[in-house]
Amino acid sequence: MITALGQQILRTDTAGMPLEWIDYRSAVRFHFLEQIAYVAGNPLFQIHGGINAVTRQQSVVEVHSIIATHGNSHAIQKMRKGYIPPLNNHTLFRRDNNLCLYCGNHFSRRDLSRDHVTPLSQGGADHWNNVVTACVRCNNHKAGRTPEQAGLELLAIPFTPTHAEYIYLQGRNVLADQMEFLRAHFPRTSPLHARLALAS
Questions:
Q1: Whole-angstrom Cα distance, residue 134 to residue 142?
Q2: Residues 32-60: pLDDT tens digits?
Q3: Of 31, 60, 88, 130, whose CB has the highest number of CB atoms within 10 Å?
Q4: Percent of the chain with pLDDT over 90
C-alpha cells in the first residue's frame, strides 16, 4: 500500500502535456524554485517547512496530484511522430493488463513473460509491435514458433504506446484525477480506452 507521501505526482509542461511522474520532494523543490505554472487535480497533502526568521511564519506547500512546470521540455521531442518509448516488461505487462494474450487469463507479474509474436529466431524484432504478454506456460508451448505454427490465437494486436500512454503505463497507484487527465491525451483509437474500461 502506498502512503500519502509515496503517491506519485504527475508533472506536465505549461501546455498540459504529461512529462513524467515525480515524488513529493521534487514537487516541493519546483514550488520553492518558483517553477510551478499552475496546479491541477486534487490536493494530496501539505508539507511544512522552516520558520522565517523575519516574519516568524512557517512555510507551507500544498502538493497537488498534477503540477505544470515552466522551463524547456524534453517532452516536445517525445511528442514527435517518430518517438518510440523504451520497451520493458513492467510497461508491457501494464499495456496488456497482466493478461496472457494467448490463453486470456490474468496472472501476477512473476508468472508472465515477454513473447515475440514473430520469434527472434525467425527474424522478429524486440519491438512493441512484435511483443505481447504471455504466461510462462503459453510462452513455453509456443517456443520458437509463430502463433499460427503453434496453433495459438493472438487475442489482441500489439501496439506501440504514445508518450502519454507510456507515462500512464509507468505509473503506480494512478489516482482517478490523474487517470482522467492522462486519458484525455490518449489517441481516440487507443486500445487502452477499452482495456481500462474492462479493468474498472
A1: 10
A2: 899 999 999 899 988 877 777 787 787 78
A3: 31
A4: 71
